[in-house]
C-alpha cells in the first residue's frame, strides 16, 4: 500500500478517480482460469483504452464460482498485470466474515490499492443498521487497506444514505459503489461527499454525475471495455471533456454512443449477462472465454443476434494489417 490507515481517505480522494471497470474473468474450455487471456485483456484495457482502475473478482468476475484460493490468485494476477499503470480494487465480498477478512488480508499483502465489500445478506433481519455498522467496523479493524462499501438490491435491501453517512466515519472507509436510485446517491453525496467517494455503476448516468454532482470516479461495470476500442474511445473522450468543463462537447460524444448501448442492452438475455458480455468481448478481439456453471452459455441464435447488432452499432474497430 502507498498509504497508512490514517491517511487512507486522503489518498483515495487524491488518487481514486477516472474510469474504473469491473473485470470479467475468462475461463478456458476446461473451465480453468485463462491467466494469459486475462493478462492480455488487462494490457489492452490499460494501454489501448486508458482505463484507470479495475474491480477484480466481483459479480462480473464470477467470484461465486471460484474457490478462495482462486480468488486470491486473481488478486495476484491483477496486481501483476497492472504493474503500476492502473489501480486495483479487490472484491472480498462473502457471506462468511472469516473469508472476507482472509481475502482482505491477501489483497493488502499482494499490493492491491483498495478492497470492496458487498453488504451481506442478513437473514431474518429487518432493522439492520447497527448490524451493518458493526460488520464494516469489524472488517476495518482487521486490515489497514482502504475499503469501499457496496450496496445493491442483490442483498435484499439497500443501505440508506443516513446509514452510509455513519459508515463514512469509519477511518478506512473511502468509497462506495452505490447501486441505488439516483435520489439516494445524490443525497449521500450531499451528506458525506467530503468523507466518502460516492459512485454508481450506471454508465448512462455517469456524465450527468460528473456535470451535476462533481463526481470524478466511475465505479464501475463493464462498459469501459465493451463500448470502446483502441480506435474508438468515446467513453474516455466524453469523460475527459466533462472533467475539463466542456459540457456541450461531452454530451454530444456521449449521445453518439446510444446505438452501442442499445445493441448491448437489446441482445442480452436476462439470465445470461456474463455469457453475453464475454461473447461481445470476443467480437471486439478480447479474450472472453466460457462461463462457469451454473451460469448459462449463449445459444447459436443468441450469438447470431448479438453479431448482427454488434456489426450495426457503429463501434469503430482498429484497422488490421
What does this structure look like?
This protein has 321 residues and is of the alpha/beta class. The protein has 14 helices and 8 strands. It has helices spanning 8-15, 35-48, 68-82, 97-110, 129-142, 161-167, 182-192, 203-213, 223-226, 234-243, 247-255, 258-267, 273-284, 300-311, and strands spanning 18-22, 53-56, 87-91, 114-118, 146-151, 173-178, 197-199, 217-221. It has an 8-stranded parallel sheet with strand order 7-6-5-4-3-2-1-8. The radius of gyration is 19 Å and the shape is globular. The mean pLDDT is 97.
What structural class should be given to the helix and strand makeup?
alpha/beta
Inertia-based shape: globular
Biggest sheet, spatial arrangement of strands = 7-6-5-4-3-2-1-8
Radius of gyration: 19 Å
Q: Strand portion, in percent?
A: 5-15%
Q: For the residues shown, what is the average pLDDT?
A: 97
What's the structural blueprint in terms of helices and strands?
Elements lengths: L7 H8 L2 E5 L12 H14 L4 E4 L11 H15 L4 E5 L5 H14 L3 E5 L10 H14 L3 E6 L9 H7 L5 E6 L3 H11 L4 E3 L3 H11 L3 E5 L1 H4 L7 H10 L3 H9 L2 H10 L5 H12 L15 H12 L10
Parallel strand pairs: 1-2, 1-8, 2-3, 3-4, 4-5, 5-6, 6-7
Record keyword descriptors for this entry.
single chain, 321 residues, alpha/beta, eight-stranded parallel sheet, 14 helices, 8 strands, 47% helix, 12% strand, globular
